[in-house]
């Protein structure tokens, strides 16, 4: 058994330090093993120019970034692993990335595989592929926002052995929260989705985000779903054995019954 916490909040566009300091107050004193924050959590999402991207990046692989340094110390101090989305610069390219930071100071980066809408104007498609990391005996995978739309994303993480998928998001489409009940059910895995809320405007660019951050179970249940507006943190206890047990009944096993030779391959 372990605990996962989901943070939902409304960031101020491009105010990285202010946003980080804000959520540090939200998470103060939380009792958890994992905390997940939204996609591009502290820069905001409504980029209108490459210049804005260039001014808000972090480079954890070069030990660079206010959010990275803050949450690395937080994880070391509390023993809580943290996942948040950020604008990553690496080898002169920019990626919509998420980072998993652990209490021993180690970290791993996932770069978004499926870019959505205007993200394609600013970011390079991710090149890390999907991965699963063992954190104190819990196998954790990471996906970002629009990845949910592609069933292969969460199926890949489940096949890699994920007990829990942490899913930073900036959701504007109205489907994900309901769809992730099915993504959890069809893979028998927990999914923790952290979303922002409210409207974000930048000149003529405007996005309205859906909130409703949630955790779904291997049985397709919504363990909790936050309101569509408001800053929150909510924690739930999870039994990883329910993700590890792929049995549907005494004759059927979700993964053993797969027959890949008959499936389409790209």
From TrEMBL:
Domain CN hydrolase: 2-240
One term of GO molecular function: hydrolase activity, acting on carbon-nitrogen (but not peptide) bonds, in linear amides
Keywords, sorted A to Z: Hydrolase
Name of this protein: Nitrilase
Regions that span the bilayer: none
PROSITE patterns: CN_HYDROLASE
Pfam families reported in the protein's UniProt record: CN_hydrolase (PF00795)
Database matches in InterPro entries: Aliph_Amidase/BUP (IPR050345), C-N_Hydrolase (IPR003010), C-N_Hydrolase_sf (IPR036526)
């Amino acid at each position: 058994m372990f605990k996962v916490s989901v943070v939902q909040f409304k960031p101020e566009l491009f105010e990285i330090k202010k946003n980080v300091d804000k959520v540090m107050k939200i998470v103060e004193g939380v009792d958890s093993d994992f905390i997940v924050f939204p996609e591009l959590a502290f820069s905001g999402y409504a980029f209108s120019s490459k210049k804005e991207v260039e001014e808000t990046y972090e480079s954890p692989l070069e030990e660079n970034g206010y959010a990275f340094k803050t949450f690395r110390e937080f994880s070391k101090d509390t023993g809580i692993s943290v996942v948040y989305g950020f604008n990553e610069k690496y080898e002169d390219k920019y990626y919509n990335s998420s980072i998993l930071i652990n209490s021993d100071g180690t970290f791993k980066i996932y770069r978004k595989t499926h870019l959505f809408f205007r993200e394609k104007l600013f970011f390079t498609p991710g090149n890390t592929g999907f991965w699963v990391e063992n954190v104190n005996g819990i196998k954790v995978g990471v996906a970002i926002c629009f990845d949910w739309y592609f069933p292969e994303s969460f199926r890949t993480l489940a096949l890699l052995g994920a007990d829990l998928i942490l899913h930073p998001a900036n959701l504007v489409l109205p489907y994900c929260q309901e769809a992730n009940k099915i993504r959890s059910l069809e893979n028998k895995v927990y999914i923790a989705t952290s979303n922002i809320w409210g409207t974000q405007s930048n000149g003529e660019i405007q996005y309205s985000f859906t909130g409703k951050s949630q955790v779904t179970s291997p049985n397709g249940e919504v363990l909790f779903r936050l309101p569509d507006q408001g800053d929150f943190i909510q924690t739930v206890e999870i039994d990883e054995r329910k993700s590890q047990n792929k049995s549907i009944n005494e004759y059927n096993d979700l993964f053993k019954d797969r027959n890949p030779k008959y499936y389409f391959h790209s």
